[in-house]
Write a structure and sequence with these properties.
It is globular and about 80 Å long. Helices cover 26% and strands 29% of the residues. It is α+β, with helices and mostly antiparallel strands. The strands form seven sheets. The protein has an eight-stranded antiparallel sheet with strand order 18-17-23-14-15-22-19-20. An eight-stranded antiparallel sheet has the order 28-25-27-26-30-31-29-32. It has three domains: 4-277, P-loop containing nucleotide triphosphate hydrolases (Rossmann fold, 3-Layer(aba) Sandwich), CATH 3.40.50; 284-382, P-loop containing nucleotide triphosphate hydrolases (Rossmann fold, 3-Layer(aba) Sandwich), CATH 3.40.50.300; 393-530, 2-Layer Sandwich (Alpha-Beta Plaits), CATH 3.30.70. It starts with 5 loop residues before the first helix and ends with a strand. Bound molecules: guanosine-5',3'-tetraphosphate (G4P). Residues 20, 22-28, 47, 91, 142-143, 145-146, 260-262 line the site of guanosine-5',3'-tetraphosphate (G4P). It comes from Buchnera aphidicola subsp. Diuraphis noxia. InterPro entries: EF-G-like_DII, EFG_III/V, G_TR_CS, P-loop_NTPase, PrfC, RF3_C, RF3_dom_3_sf, RF3_GTP-bd. GO terms for molecular function: GTP binding; GTPase activity; guanosine tetraphosphate binding; translation release factor activity, codon nonspecific; translation release factor activity, codon specific.
């Protein structure tokens, strides 16, 4: 039966991801959010140092060996009566295509920037992906308790590099040892930073501080600094525009917050803005129509497949983002691509490594169920309608290796294993048209080790990889087909097929790619390809 509280359930959900360059503070912020959400009670568990490990799982040997997480975690918690779905994006060496795909399953993003470093390479790449979907972005400038760059300089950099207008919501009062807190421009409150704030305690603030010219400020931070703050705020309130919800929802501007995740300072400002400004579950486009979250029939799409979450069972879990309708236990779902109706008995929600069996779920929620080899990234599930969601793209890999067998007799198994792993989205596999090599393509270096490990554990195949002279890849399409044959003939040594038999150009250098792109102007070299078209 359809839930009468459906609309309410919908409106209280916020599904977002945190993105940052490694070490900017993503894990620390996640932990503080989980503290606010009362999912954890003490700091330190996110890193997995205690017995309870919420935000890191260690389900694979490779993770244990390296002490990092290869998985993408989903965390659900409540904050001020809102239900937050936080999708963690793999960050360090475990950066992979998964990280990009996660961004197609969220409705907003929090970008964390290290105040001493500004925009770093990984942040730039991830934001480029969010810009493709015009995802609303909230920005947190972190580590103000350390020496930082001039905040105005950081905002300039954001505007220039990320092409987003900045709207400061809080403003820092000094930094490093002199960090005194932030002024909340919209609340007109000064929040004072204390070095050792208790983990669950809310911030200390100068209540009723409505007037910057009040001498109360001087008492707290000294006259010299107080005057400096007044001048700075005067400037920034004149220079920067006011927050505009419509522009934010279109991904044209980003509200800016400052703080220290480690000191649990400013994180609740971000959470408050997330529930106030970030959108509830949004509609998604299919090839034939737009699906609205208010629709009563269930729809959802698979954005991630994770293997071996439970090593004892060697299982694979498909992660589904619900777009519309309500999931109820035991309901029949249509697996659109294979045209079959199936009843999925065990549906999970996630708390990082932990799975919880659930009976109900709503748009914006991420649910998971067992995949017995029939589910691929990008698959659509419905209550019967034959529609297919657009938008789980394949991204051109950025690293390449040739994979080879230690025992050449296992070639058939190797091809089967690689096909399955690439259907799951673990790795991309290319077959050159001129030779029998198998080339692996990945976004993050660790994926190659994951593949070797999984081939060994799951398929009993001993394989290794080696460097290969490929630095950039582009999928090939032709506008006119006029010159496609001559292009193929002249460049066969650089061409390969992916597992879906799409032609891809594997260039030995960026210069080589530039030359061939100039030479064949009617050929399209795609950085991205949408699966299952
Ligand atoms: P990441 O997930 O984005 O990679 O970053 P993470 O939260 O792991 O933070 C990276 C390092 O920066 C950690 O220190 C963390 O404690 C520190 N850090 C995060 N936020 C702040 C902050 O607001 N102020 C200061 N001063 N430091 C911050 P680490 O020494 O690498 O790790 P750990 O031993 O502290 O866990």
């Amino acid at each position: 039966m359809f839930d009468l509280n459906y609309k309410q359930e919908l409106n209280k959900r916020r599904t977002f991801a945190i993105i940052s360059h490694p070490d900017a503070g993503k894990t620390t912020i996640t932990e503080k959010m989980l503290l606010f959400g009362k999912v954890i009670r003490t700091s330190g568990v996110v890193k997995g140092t205690g017995n309870i490990k919420y935000a890191k799982s260690d389900w694979m040997d490779i993770e244990k060996k390296r002490g990092i997480s290869v998985t993408t975690s989903v965390m659900q918690f409540t904050y001020k009566k809102f239900l937050i779905n936080l999708l963690d994006t793999p960050g360090h060496k475990d950066f992979s295509e998964d990280t990009y795909r996660i961004l197609t399953a969220v409705d907003s993003c929090l970008v964390v920037i290290d105040a001493a470093k500004g925009i770093e390479e990984r942040t730039q790449k991830l934001i480029d992906v969010t810009r493709m979907h015009n995802t609303p972005i909230i920005t947190f400038i972190n580590k103000l308790d350390r020496d930082s760059r001039d905040p105005i300089e950081i905002l300039d950099e954001i505007e220039k590099k990320l092409k987003l207008s900045c709207i400061p919501v809080t403003w820092p009062i000094s930094c490093g040892r002199n960090f005194k807190g932030v002024y909340h421009i919209y609340e007109k409150i000064i929040y004072l930073y204390k070095n050792k704030v208790s983990q669950t305690q809310s911030l200390s603030r100068i209540e009723g501080f409505y007037n910057l010219s009040s001498t109360v400020l001087d008492q707290y931070i000294g006259t010299i600094l107080a005057n400096q703050v007044r001048q700075e705020l005067d400037l920034i309130m004149n220079v920067y525009a006011k927050f505009d919800s419509q522009k934010f929802l279109k991904g044209l501007l980003t509200p800016i917050f400052f703080g220290s995740a480690l000191g649990n300072f400013g994180v609740d400002h971000v959470l408050t803005s997330l529930i106030k400004w970030a959108p509830p579950p949004l509609s998604r486009q299919t090839y034939t129509r737009q699906v609205n979250p208010q629709e009563k029939a269930f729809t959802g799409f698979v954005f991630k497949i994770q293997a071996n979450m439970d090593l004892k069972h060697r299982d694979r879990i498909a992660f589904i983002r619900i777009v519309s309708g309500q999931y109820t236990k035991g309901m029949k779902l249509r697996h659109v691509r294979i045209k079959k109706n199936i009843i999925i008995s065990d549906v999970f929600s996630f708390l990082a490594g932990d799975r919880l069996l659930i009976k109900k779920a709503y748009p914006g929620d991420i649910i998971g169920f067992h995949n017995h080899g029939t589910i691929q990234i990008g698959d659509t599930f419905t209550e019967g309608e034959d529609i297919k969601f657009i938008g789980i793209p394949s991204f051109a890999p950025e690293m390449f290796r040739r994979i080879y067998l230690t025992n050449p007799l296992q070639q058939k198994q190797l091809i089967k294993g690689l096909k399955q792993l690439s259907e799951e989205g673990t790795i991309q596999v290319f077959r050159p048209i001129n030779n029998n090599n198998l080339i692996l393509g990945a976004i993050g270096i660790l994926q190659f080790d994951v593949v070797i490990e999984r081939l060994k554990m799951e398929y009993h195949i001993d394989a290794q990889y080696e460097e290969i002279n490929v630095v950039v890849a582009r999928w090939i399409r032709s506008k006119t087909h006029l010159h496609l044959d001559s292009f193929k003939n002249n460049n066969s040594m650089y061409l390969a097929y992916d597992i879906f038999n799409n032609l891809i150009y594997l260039a030995p250098s960026q210069a080589n790619l530039n030359i061939v792109m100039n030479e064949y102007s009617d050929i399209i070299f795609d950085k991205m390809r949408t699966k299952n078209q």
